[in-house]
Amino acid sequence: MAADIGIRGQAVRCEDLSRTFTSPAGSIAAVDATDVTFAAGQTTALVGPSGCGKSTLLRLIAGLEAPTTGTVRIGDETPAQTCQRGALAVAFQDASLLPWRTLRGNIALALTLARRPADPDRVDRLIAKVGLQGFEDRRPAELSGGMRQRAAIARCLVGDPELLLLDEPFGAVDELTRRRLNYELPKLWQANGTTALLVTHSVTEAVLVADRVLVMSPRPGRIVADIDIDLPQPRTRGLESETAFRTLTATVAEALMDIAPPRQFAAQ
Amino acid sequence: MTAGVLRHRQAAWGQGGARALAIVAVLALWELAARANADSFVLAGPVEVARYLWQNAPLLTRALGATLQSAAWGFVWGNLAAILLAVAVVLIPRAERVVAALALIVFCLPLVATGPILRVLFGQGNGPQITLAALAVYYTTFLPLVVGLRAVPQSWLDLIRSHGRGRMTQLIHVRAPASFPYLIAGLQIAAPAAILGAMVGEFTGAERGLGVLTIRAMRALDVDATWAIATLAAGVSILAYGGFGALVRRLRVESPAVLLTPPDHRHRRPPWRRLADIGVIVAIALVLWQATMDLFDLNPFFAKRPGDVVAFLLTGPDAAAHRATLFAAYGETLVFTLPGYLAGLALGAGLACGVVLMPGLATTALPLSVALRSVPIVATAPLIVLALGRGAVGTITIVTVMIFFPTLVACLQGLRQTPGQIIDIFDTYASGRWRLLRLARVPAMLPAFFASARMAVPAAILAVTTAEWLATGNGIGSLMALTASTSDYNMLWSAIVLVALTAALAYGAVAWIEAQVLAVYAMEQTVRR
Ligand SMILES: Nc1ncnc2c1ncn2[C@@H]1O[C@H](COP(=O)(O)OP(=O)(O)OP(=O)(O)O)[C@@H](O)[C@H]1O
Ligand SMILES: [Mg+2]
DSSP alpha helices (H): ranges in chain A? Predict the structure, then answer.
C-alpha cells in the first residue's frame, strides 16, 4: 500500500433518492427525496438523530436496499456493478462476524468473497493496525463488542475498496481506543483515495475524521446541513484543542440542535 | 449463553449418580411388577428378559444386524433427501409452500399401508425396510434444517451481497455452517426413527430382522420373547439417540434455541388465496402420483392411480358400499386417536410444568423421558397390548404414550427458553412460582408445545394404525392390513389417501390454532426470522 497515485475512489451520486417501508402498521418514509453527491476520495460523515434513516441511506448506496424512487450511481456504475467487482465494503452497525470462523478467517473471508488470492500477511498486518494482534485465532465470541467492531473494520479494509461504507463502526469501542482509531484508521483509506461514508452519533468523531459533515433531519430523512471541514488531512494529535476544530464542532452541534424536533416533542 | 448451555446440560443429564439410581429404580420396579403379575402372562421381568436375550443371543444378533443395516441405509437416504429439499426451499423461496406441503403429505402416508405396497414392488430383500426408514426420518430433519438455514442475521447475508455474490455463496459461507447445529439435532431425532421405520418395513414379510421376530413372538403369545425383543429395540434406539447426544457434546455444537418455528404468518393471506394454494398443492400431488406410477410403468394391479381411487369411492358401481366400509373403519380409528392425542399432549405439557415447579424432579425426569422418547412405538405397542388388551384402552394408551414423551421433552426445553432477565424481574417482585409459571414460563413454552403438537399429528396416526394393524383388529389400520393381505389394492389406496389427507389437514388445523394463540401470547416468536 504505497501512498500512491491520486484518487482510486469514485464519486457517489444520489438523485431524488427515497425509500419507504410499508408494513401492516403503516408506512414509514426512511429516506426522502435526497439529492447528494459524495466527492471521489473524500470522507463524509453523516450525523442525525436515531431512526432518521442513516443506515437506510447507506444500504441504498450499497445496493442492499432497492430505492422506492431515484437512483444511485457510483462513478458510472450502479451499486450492483461496483459490488460485483468487489470494490465496495460495508461495516454494519453490528459487527456481523461469522461465529464459526476465527478472527483471521473472518477477515480473510472478504478476500475470498471478492475472488482475490489469499494474502495472510496483509490480513495479519490489518489485524495489527486495528490493535487486535494476539487474537488472530480467537473466535468472535471470545472478543469484546469493541474488538468485534474493530475486526469488522479490518475486514472492510483488507480488500482495499474504492468505496467504504461505515455504519457507526466505533459505537461499542471505549472512548480512549476510539480516539486512537479516529486518528489512525482514516489514514489507511484516505492514503488510497478511497471514497468513504461514515455514520456516527459523535460530533467530535465526525469532525475528526471527515472532510465534510452532513446533518440529517428526523424522519423522513433529509439532508439539512452540509458543513465542510477544511482541516488538513491526515489529522494529528492535538487537533482537538485547536480553535478551528472547536468552531467546526460547535457549528455541527448547532446544526443538529436546529433541525426540527421529532414529532412527539413537537406536539407538546 | 455458555452458562445457559452448561446449566442445560447439567439439568439434561443430571449427575451420573442420579442417573444410575434412576435406572436401578426402574429395573427394580419392573422386576417387582413382573413378580406380582407372574401368573397373568403380561409382564416379563428384567431377569426373564436377560435370560431370553442370553439364550437366543445368536438369533437376536443376526436379527438386530439386519434391522440396523436397513435403518442405517434408510437414515442415509432419508436425510440426504431432507438436505436436498431444505436447500431447494432456501435457494428457491417461491417453491417453499409447495415443497413443504408435498413433503408433509408424503410424511403423512401411513407406513403400515405403504409397507405392503412397497413389498409387492420390491419383492424380497430389504428395499421396503430401507424406504420406510427413509420415509420415517426425512421430515424431522427437513423442518429444523429449513429453520437453521433461514435463521441467520440479515447482516451476514448482506455481507455476502455487498461483495456482489449471490444465493449460492450465501448458502456455502453463511447458511450451511449456521445450520449445522440444526442438522445435528434433526439427525439425532432421526436415528431412533430410522430403526422404527426399518422395523415396520420388516412387519411386511421380510425374512430377517427384529420386526419379524416381534410379529412371531406376538402371534405365539410368547411374553418373554415380546419383552426381550422390545427391550432390545428400545435399548438400541436409546443408544442411537444417546450416541448422537455424545457426539454433539464432543463437537461442542450448541443446541439451537428453537428447532421448529411457527408457521410464517408475516404475510397475512386472504382466505381465498389459501384455498387456491391448497387446490394447487392437491393438483400437483395428484399429477405427481399419476406421473410416478406411469413413469416407472408400475403394474396397475397394485399401483393404483388417482382415477382408480375416484372410481372406487365415487363413480364406480359399488362406490357407496366401499365408502361405507372405509368410513366405518375410519370412524373407529378417529375415536381412538383423538382422546389419545389430546391426553398425550395434556400429560406431556402438564408434567413439564410440574417438573418446573419441583426442580428436583428434573434431574431424573428429563434424562428418563429423553431416553423413552427415542423408544420406537413398534417396540412398546406389543407390550401395551399385552398389558391392556386389544380394546379401546390399549389403543388409546399407545397413542398417548407415543405423543407424551416428545411433548414432555419439547415442553421442558421450551420452559427453559424463558429469558433469564424476565425470571429476574419476577424475582425482584418476589412473585411466587405459580405466577412465574403462568405469566412468563407458559407463554415461553407455547411455541415448543405447538411445534410438538403439530409433529404429533402424523405420529398419532402412525401409532394408532400400527396398533390396529398389529393387535386390535379394529379401525383403518386393520382394514389396511386386511386389504393388503387380500390384494384389495383399491381399498388400500383409498385408505392411504384418506389417512394422508386427514393427517395433512389436521396438521394444518393445529398450525392455524398455533398461529392464533402465538399471535396473542408470543408476538416476538411469530415475527422472528
Ligand atoms: N427493513 C425495514 N422495515 C421497516 N422499517 C424499517 C426497516 N429498516 C428501517 N426501517 C425504518 O426506517 C427508519 C430509519 O431506519 P434507519 O435504520 O435507517 O435509522 P438510523 O438513522 O440508522 O438509526 P440509528 O441511528 O438508530 O441506527 C426507522 O424508523 C425504521 O423504523
Ligand atoms: Mg443505523
Answer: 54-61, 79-84, 103-113, 120-129, 145-158, 175-190, 203-209, 243-258, 263-266
* Contact at CB, B155 and A100, closer than 8 angstroms: no
> B161 and A84: CB-CB below 8 Å?
no
The whole-angstrom separation of Cα B401 and Cα B404 is 5
CATH number at residue B461: 1.10.3720.10
pLDDT, averaged across chain B: 81
Q: What percent of chain B is helix, strand and coil (3-state, nearest 5)?
A: 85, 0, 15
Ligand 1 center–CA B517 separation, angstroms? 29
Q: Quick check: is B336 in a domain?
A: yes
Tell me the sheet residues that pair with A73. A13
Instruction: Break chain A into its structural domains and give their ranges.
Output: 1-87+161-268, 94-160
Number of domains, chain B: 1
The ligand minimizing its distance to the Cα of A68 is 1
Residue B419 burial (10 A CB sphere; 0-12, 13-18, 19+): exposed
CATH architecture of the domain formed by A1-87+161-268: 3-Layer(aba) Sandwich (3.40)
Rounded-to-integer distance, Cα B79 and Cα B76, Å: 5
Considering only CB atoms, B164 lies closest to which of A86, A98, A109, namely A86
Domain residue limits at B326: 42-525
Which residue's alpha carbon is nearest to atom 1 within ligand 1? A21
Report angle CA A214, A219, A222 to the nearest 5 degrees. Answer: 35
Tell which residue, B373, B454, B461, has the closest CA to residue B412. Answer: B373
Amino acid B120: pLDDT: 86
pLDDT at B224 over 90: no
What is the Cα–Cα distance from A133 to A154, expressed in whole angstroms? 12
Mean predicted lDDT score pLDDT of chain A: 84
Read off the C-alpha cell for A83.
Answer: 459490488
Residue A149 in contact with ligand 1 by CB distance below 6 A: no
CB contact under 8 A, A85 and B163: no
C-alpha distances out from residue A237 to A177, A227, B250, Å: 14, 22, 51
- Between these two residues, A263 and B103, which has the higher pLDDT value? B103
Interchain contact, B177 vs A89, CB within 8 Å: no
Distance from CA of A81 to the nearest CA of B (A): 8
Can you give the three-state secondary structure of B368-385, one letter per residue?
Answer: HHHHHHCCCHHHHHHHHH
How confident is the model over B68-112, as pLDDT tens digits? Answer: 999 999 999 999 999 999 999 999 888 888 888 888 888 888 888
Name the CA dihedral angle for A90, A92, A95, A101, rounded to a multiple of 10 degrees: -50
Within an 8 Å CB–CB cutoff, is residue B165 touching chain A? yes
Is pTM beyond 0.90? Reply is no
Residue carrying the nine cell digits 437512483: A71
Report the phi/psi class of residue A101: left, alpha or beta, with left for phi > 0 and alpha for psi in -120 to 50: beta
Q: Which of A80-94, B7-21, B91-105 has the lowest mean pLDDT?
A: B7-21
pLDDT in tens, A93-129: 888 888 889 999 999 998 888 888 888 999 999 999 8
| d(CA B256, nearest CA chain A) in Å | 14
Which backbone phi and psi does B177 adopt, to 5 degrees?
-65, -35
* Closest chain A residue by Cα to residue B253: A100
Judge contact between B227 and B48, C-beta under 8 A: yes
Q: Any idea which residue has 407424551 for its cell?
A: B404
B14 within a domain of the structure (yes/no): no
Span A159-215, pLDDT tens digits: 888 899 999 888 878 888 888 888 888 888 888 888 999 999 888 889 989 999 998
3-state secondary structure of A77: strand
Assign B166 to helix, strand or coil.
coil
3-state SS class at A202 = coil
Contact B344, B403 (CB under 8 A): yes
